[in-house]
Automatic annotation (TrEMBL):
Keyword hit for Metal-binding: yes
Protein name: Iron-sulfur cluster carrier protein
HAMAP family in alphabetical order: Mrp_NBP35
Similarity remark: Belongs to the Mrp/NBP35 ATP-binding proteins family. In the C-terminal section; belongs to the Mrp/NBP35 ATP-binding proteins family.
Subunit-structure text: Homodimer.
Keyword Hydrolase: yes
Any one GO molecular-function label of the UniProt entry: ATP binding
Binding positions for ATP per the UniProt entry: G106, K107, G108, G109, V110, G111, K112, S113
Record domain MIP18 family-like: where: 6-77
Pfam families registered for this protein in UniProt: FeS_assembly_P, ParA
GO process annotations (BP): iron-sulfur cluster assembly
Source organism of this protein record: Microscilla marina ATCC 23134
Job of this protein: Binds and transfers iron-sulfur (Fe-S) clusters to target apoproteins. Can hydrolyze ATP.
């Protein structure tokens, strides 16, 4: 049997990337083809390390080689990932950050910061480079959730400009207004001053190359939200809500705000936090304390993806208080819930990036 590189590519051109609806060869996702007798190996470059379709794509590649070349071929599919971006190298604001994702909730206290901190951790665990900006100036809780509440970011000079170095914890680069203004002084940050300080803080941080920068926005719909998402080209926003009526009503206002024509930030999805309570000793029991399926209905109403349910469990609260996000070492249900959210969000980012017209890359000095 004489297998050629062309034959391998031809076989793989029959495999469609399920989300992007184009074949792997057209999408330039096939690399490093190697052929040795009846052994064939190649690398598939995924659009995110958090790709939930990894195993499905691997299986389809193996099947395609067996079907189009020979059943007896020994196939090795290696997987790597290069996170896609439509902003990489095209914008003077954070040009080395591939995707900026804002996390918003209409109502306070729905667990936005908890979800954000676990999301950052889950993406990092998948192999992505992640930064986290805690823009919740009225109650910056990210430093506590990452055990760095006494963090004092250092400043370094780059090309004559003072840049802030983020504090790194558990592999995530973190900047919080809490590092600058202790909680008791948060009241000094008001309106335009807060917006200006935040935007400057964001741009003056030496993030380095990032696949995802998550911004934990303050609760509600304020000038700060508008200034931030207009100052930084944002890939999209994730809406966090609980199933409760009052939380949903505020989440609706949030979605409507981001969708205003002059704002026009894509809503990447909705996640329902505190979806149900599960006691540790009865893991199969679900109690719908705040109501049921409200987040799902919200996503249906606005035609945006529903990215999952996060249970109300003690581990999640404890993780936040102890400075280690629960996705790091909680029980399987909690870990799966946050990993599923990270995969779903990364998938929506990849789909969005693929649907954007390719912008001309411009060289920008950082
Ligand atoms: N799924 C969950 N299970 C258990 N506890 C949770 C869960 N989500 C959030 N919490 C707890 O609820 C409280 C509020 O969460 P968090 O600070 O994340 O909310 P927030 O929406 O960011 O609040 P704010 O409006 O102040 O920014 C915290 O004590 C957190 O530990």
């Amino acid at each position: 049997m004489n297998i050629t590189q062309e034959a391998v590519l031809k076989a793989l051109s029959t495999v469609e990337e399920p989300d992007l609806k184009k074949d792997l060869v057209t999408l330039n996702m096939v690399d490093k083809i190697s052929i040795d007798g009846n052994k064939v190996s190649f690398t598939i470059i995924l659009t995110t390390p958090a790709c939930p379709l990894k195993e499905l794509i691997r299986k389809r590649c193996e099947d395609a080689i067996h079907e189009h070349i020979n059943k007896k071929v020994e196939v090795t599919v290696n997987m790597t990932a290069e996170v896609t971006s439509t902003r990489f190298g095209t914008t003077p604001v954070l040009p080395k950050v591939k995707n900026v994702i804002a996390i918003a909730s209409g109502k306070g206290g729905v667990g936005k910061s908890t979800v954000t901190s676990n999301l950052a951790m889950a993406l990092t665990k998948s192999g992505a480079k992640v930064g986290l900006l805690d823009a919740d100036i009225y109650g910056p809780s990210i430093p506590t959730m990452y055990g760095v509440e006494n963090g004092k970011p250092e400043v370094t000079e780059v090309d004559g400009k003072n840049m802030i170095l983020p504090i790194e914890s558990l592999g995530v680069k973190i900047i919080s207004m809490g590092f600058l203004a202790p909680a008791e002084n948060a009241v000094v940050w008001r309106g335009p001053m807060a917006s200006k300080a935040l935007t400057q803080f964001l741009g003056d941080t030496l993030w380095g190359e990032l696949d995802y920068l998550l911004i934990d926005l303050p609760p509600g719909t304020s000038d700060i939200h508008l200034t931030l998402v207009q100052a930084v080209p944002v890939t999209g926003v994730l809406i966090v809500t609980t199933p409760q009526k009052v939380a949903l009503a505020d989440a609706i206002k949030g979605v409507a705000m981001f969708r205003q024509p002059q704002i026009n930030v894509p809503v990447l999805g909705v996640v329902e936090n505190m979806a149900y309570f599960t006691p540790a000793e009865l893991p199969d029991n679900k109690y719908y304390i705040f109501g049921k399926d409200g987040g799902k209905e919200l996503s249906r109403r606005f035609g945006v993806p529903f990215l999952g349910e996060i249970p109300l469990v003690q581990d999640i609260r404890e993780g936040g208080d102890n400075g280690v996000p629960a996705v790091q070492d909680a029980d399987e249900t909690t870990v799966k819930a946050f990993e599923g959210l990270a995969q779903g969000l990364a998938q929506q980012v990849a789909i969005r990036n693929a649907s954007q017209p390719k912008t001309q890359k411009v060289e920008i000095k950082v």
